[in-house]
Structure formats: structure tokens, C-alpha cells
Write a structure and sequence with these properties.
CATH topology of one domain: Flavocytochrome C3, Chain A, domain 1
Shape: globular
Number of helices: 13
Bound molecules: flavin-adenine dinucleotide
Largest sheet: 5 strands, parallel
Strand content: 15-25%
CATH class of one domain: Alpha Beta
Distance between the termini: 29 Å
Length: 510
């Protein structure tokens, strides 16, 4: 096998992905020798885009139990309660770690942490940085710590292709570095931290590397996946024609911004008692309906935020102004967009997948904390908590083969991921948006599956981003077809009710 590779290397652990989850795992894993791969430049996934913040029960009147109760309330009965207790219980300690690693969260004048509120949270518990640039600050700090460690080698422009499985155990992976350097990486522990699936959809807030590769790799190797039909659509992305769409953070509605239709009517008050602060899926579907009926949706923060916009929400303010919209004075055009994947590679509380040697952390994992819907700002927290736990689990398992890591040839020959057949991918993304998106039904899902197969035949043979996207699209559409009910992020017009029978997961590779 090694004859087919330009380079063969060994490390104690390989982490695929350099977002909050992958970097947290890598930092905790050192002093083991760790290689971290990213498809583009380091921290090129969703993490630096995160705006609103990270949730944790650090306020004086808050408690992990209260945070857990809010998380369960939104999760539609499919959360794993123990995982939720771990998330909310260990959240404050992981926030302390982030601060120790240099993350500068916003503070009040008295030095205490400034806490915001978002939909679904019954109290103020959202830590944020630079107003609404929380993810960028976290990525900056973690990249700096990882780069400073001599035990972590960060490799950019490295496309992890396939897991190597030997006698039922993951023992490494194959990767392409730059345009054409084929590498075999051997390690007793592989951690997938590849993020979500947003790029499968025509309208998304997720950046280009987020194509579900980890799910495709894990499924091909035989690992179990769970809850993958649950995709979260954010209600308010800026409808200004960009891809990815800029996010209009939930915190805006937390501060009192309201949704209006093009008649200036505040339609959410007729939809839900919590109006704009109703669960994300409820608000997203209400927005979708207004748009499907030929109307437009606007998020109006002129009264709630007004002149404070540039200081309280500098990221959103900058993005709006770039597109010629002044949110201090005019409502922002808004639309729903694919944002987050609740399901993923099934793991235990230590991030272990069903395959020995393989761990999964962050958005690509299904730890059970989100159930059918994610509470705002719980995903950065999940990356920090379970990235940490996976590293401890790997260390406790006595992993590490004691080898050093030779410098990868990546540094000599960086290159760019080839464009994965743009016409086919764009057709796939339109199809997923129209038929496997916010509103689903049997006929649409059946025809989507036929179309996905047709598009799959157009993809060039071999492992590629395009092949991964088709494989993941097929799995999500199939799971959505199986779940004959509506719950959380999964809504079927032919089965609009939630049923007790479906208090069970759809499992891939069961
Ligand atoms: C606009 C936006 C705003 C958000 N706001 C918030 C918020 O305020 N609070 C919150 O909690 N959450 C928020 N989220 C969600 C949150 O940012 C993500 O869920 C989280 O950052 C995911 O982190 P991660 O480490 O799992 O993956 P990511 O940060 O997405 O990183 C994935 C990594 O995997 C790599 N990768 C993927 N495939 C491969 C491959 N084949 N080979 C090599 N590398 C690969 C990528 O290159 C990337 O480095 C937001 C998301 C978006 C898009």
C-alpha cells in the first residue's frame, strides 16, 4: 500500500479540522505528537464566523441545571440527558480554559464577564468577544496556542480522503496535500473535527470547507451516524446575494430587534407566544413561508439597537454596510439559511465513535447534546467540552506510539483544493435546499433521492469533495424520508405532528 504514496508518516494522533473542536483536542493532546489537517488555511471552518457567543452558566444567578433545562426544552426530546449534563456542567471550566488560553471575552466596567441573552435561554449566559466576533477571537487564541506547541504540526491545504481500517480498527488516514501530494498518515488515534454540512445547501452561512467530509469518511469506514436528518436553518441570514450568507446573529433579536414583512407587519406575534424569540426552527419556517408566498422579510433593529450598532454588533454592522445597508437607520433584508447540523458521527461521552481508533468532536459529532434542535451558542461550547474530553479519553486509553513527526512536505508545496465540479455541486445544493430543506415531504424526498443518484453518476470516480457531498446528501435525504414525523429542525408537511413512536433515532450503519 505504501508504494502508492509520496510520503508515509506516523504521529500519536491525527486531528482532521482546525476549528474550536479540533484545536481544543490537539492542544489537550500535546505532549503527544499531533498532526492537525485543514482543507484550506488553519481555522477555515465555521468557528471564526461565530458571532453571538458561547453559552455557559457563569452568571451569579445561573446554574448548569438551568442551562441543561433550556437545552432539553429546545432539543425536542431526543437529547441524551447525560451528555447535556456534561455539556452544561463542564461548560464553565472550559470557558476558564479559553480565557487562560488568551480569549478576551467582553467584560463590564467592573471586570465581570458581560453576558448576553439569546433565543431559548431563560437568562443571560452568552459570553461574547469584540461584541459579535466571538468565533474569530476564539480561533485567534487557539491557533496561537497550537502554533506555539512544538508537539502540534498544523498542515494547511490538506484534504483528508479516507480512513485506513485494519482488522476493524482505524489506524490512520490517507490525505492529499496541495494539488497532488498523496500521503499516508499512520496513528493509533484519529479525531474527526470536520464541522457541519452547510455547503450541501444553496443558502447557507457556512464557509466552503464545510461539506460534511467527516461524515462521508466515517460512513465509508463503517462508523455509526445518528440524527443526521436534523439540520438547523437559521432564521436570519442577510439576504444580500452573498455565498456564504452573512449571519444576522440571534443576539439581535435577543436585544429586541423585530421581524417585519414587506407590509411592515410584525408577523411573529401571530405565530408563537415568544414571537421573535421562539425556537429557531419555528422562526425559520415562518420566514420561509413569508418568502414562499412572494413576500420579503426584514429584521428591524433601528429602535432596539440603533446608534449602538457599530459598538455592540460591529461584525454585522460592517457586513451590512459593505452591502449598502445601514442597520442603524433601515431594516435588514433577511432570509433563512442552512446553519448547523445536529446529527453526525455517533459518539460516547469521551468522543469515541463506534469504530475503535476513531473519535469525533464538534459539529461533525453526534454526542446527544442537541437532540432535534440546538440551543443557540451551545455549539462552540460542545466543541470545547468534547474536544477536551476526547483528548482525555485518548490519553487514558494509552494512545501514542511515541514517534516524532517528520515535517510534512505540505510546507514545501501548498496548493489549492481543485474545484469539485461546480455545475454538479450547484445543482446538488439547489436540490437540497428545495426538497431536503426547511419543509420536507415524501414526494419531494423521493424525487430528491433519484436526483442525487443522477448527480452522483456525474461525479468523477474516486474520493473527492463532490463525492462526499453526494454521499452525505443521500444519507440526509434517506434519514429524512424515514422519519415520518416533525420534530426540531426536521419538518414534514405530510407528517406535521411529533409522535411518541419516533422518540428514537435514525441510525446509519446500525
Ligand atoms: C456564521 C456562523 C455563526 C455562528 N455563530 C455561532 C455562535 O455564536 N455560537 C455558537 O455556539 N455557534 C455558532 N455557530 C456554529 C459554530 O460556529 C460551529 O458549530 C462550530 O464552530 C464548529 O466547530 P468545529 O470545530 O466542529 O468545526 P469548524 O470550525 O467548522 O472546522 C471544520 C474544520 O474541518 C476541516 N475539514 C473539513 N473537511 C476536511 C477534510 N476532508 N480534510 C481536512 N480538513 C477538513 C476544515 O478545513 C475546518 O478546519 C455559527 C456558525 C456560523 C457559520
Amino acid at each position: 500500500m505504501t508504494a502508492n504514496f509520496d510520503q508515509v508518516l506516523a504521529a500519536d494522533a491525527i486531528v482532521v479540522g482546525s476549528g474550536i473542536a479540533g484545536l481544543t483536542a490537539a492542544i489537550e493532546l500535546a505532549p503527544l505528537r499531533v498532526i492537525v489537517l485543514s482543507k484550506g488555511e488553519v481555522a477555515d471552518g465555521s468557528t471564526p464566523y461565530a458571532q453571538g457567543g458561547i453559552a455557559a452558566a457563569v452568571g451569579g444567578d445561573d446554574s448548569p441545571a438551568w442551562h441543561a433545562s433550556d437545552t432539553l426544552e429546545v432539543g425536542g426530546g431526543l437529547n441524551d440527558e447525560t451528555a447535556v449534563e456534561v455539556l452544561t456542567g463542564e461548560g464553565p471550566a472550559r470557558v476558564t480554559d479559553l480565557i487562560a488560553r488568551g480569549v478576551a471575552f467582553d467584560r463590564n466596567e467592573d471586570g465581570s464577564l458581560m453576558l448576553g441573552r439569546e433565543a431559548g435561554h431563560d437568562t443571560r449566559r452568552i459570553l461574547h468577544a469584540d461584541g459579535d466576533a466571538t468565533g474569530a477571537e476564539i480561533a485567534r487564541a487557539l491557533v496561537a496556542v497550537a502554533r506555539a506547541s512544538e508537539n502540534i504540526q498544523i498542515v494547511d491545504h490538506a484534504f483528508a480522503a479516507d480512513l485506513v481500517v485494519d482488522a476493524g480498527r482505524v489506524v490512520g488516514l490517507t490525505a492529499r496535500i496541495g494539488l497532488n501530494i498523496q500521503v499516508l498518515l499512520n496513528a493509533p488515534a484519529v479525531v474527526l473535527a470536520t464541522g457541519g454540512v452547510g455547503r450541501l445547501y444553496a443558502n447557507t452561512t457556512n464557509p466552503p470547507p464545510v461539506t460534511g467530509d467527516g461524515l462521508a469518511m466515517a460512513a465509508r469506514a463503517g462508523a455509526r451516524l445518528r440524527d443526521i436528518e436534523f439540520v438547523q436553518f437559521h432564521p436570519t441570514a442577510l439576504a444580500s446575494g452573498r455565498d456564504p450568507m452573512s449571519l444576522l446573529t440571534e443576539a439581535l433579536r435577543g436585544e429586541g430587534a423585530v421581524l417585519l414583512d414587506d407590509q411592515g407587519r410584525r408577523f411573529m406575534v401571530d405565530v408563537h407566544e415568544d414571537a421573535e424569540l421562539a425556537p429557531r426552527d419555528v422562526v425559520a419556517r415562518a420566514n420561509w413561508r413569508v418568502i414562499q408566498d412572494g413576500g420579503k422579510v426584514f429584521l428591524d433593529a433601528t429602535t432596539a439597537v440603533g446608534a449602538a450598532f457599530p459598538t455592540r454588533f460591529p461584525t454585522v454592522f460592517g457586513l451590512c454596510m459593505e452591502d449598502g445597508i445601514d442597520p442603524r437607520k433601515e431594516p435588514m433584508p433577511a432570509a433563512p439559511a442552512a446553519h448547523y447540523h445536529m446529527g453526525g458521527i455517533a459518539t460516547d461521552l469521551g468522543g469515541r465513535s463506534s469504530l475503535p481508533g476513531l473519535w469525533a468532536v464538534g459539529e461533525t459529532a453526534r454526542t446527544g447534546v442537541h437532540g432535534a434542535n440546538r440551543l443557540a451558542s451551545n455549539s462552540l461550547l460542545e466543541g470545547a467540552v468534547f474536544g477536551h474530553r476526547a483528548a482525555l479519553d485518548i490519553e487514558a486509553a494509552g494512545m501514542g506510539n511515541g514517534v516524532g513527526i517528520a515535517a510534512l512536505r505540505a510546507a514545501e508545496a501548498p496548493g489549492l483544493e481543485p474545484d469539485p465540479q461546480p455545475d454538479v455541486i450547484s445543482e446538488l445544493r439547489d436540490l437540497m435546499w428545495a426538497r431536503v430543506g426547511l419543509i420536507r415531504h415524501h414526494t419531494g424526498l423521493m424525487s430528491a433521492l433519484e436526483e442525487i443518484d443522477r448527480l452522483g453518476e456525474k461525479i468523477e470516480p474516486g474520493v473527492s469533495v463532490g463525492a462526499n457531498m453526494v454521499a452525505v446528501a443521500r444519507m440526509i435525504a434517506s434519514a429524512a424520508l424515514l422519519r415520518t414525523e416533525s420534530r426540531g429542525g426536521h419538518y414534514r408537511t405530510d407528517f406535521p405532528e411529533t409522535t411518541r413512536w419516533w422518540d428514537r433515532p435514525v441510525v446509519v450503519n446500525s
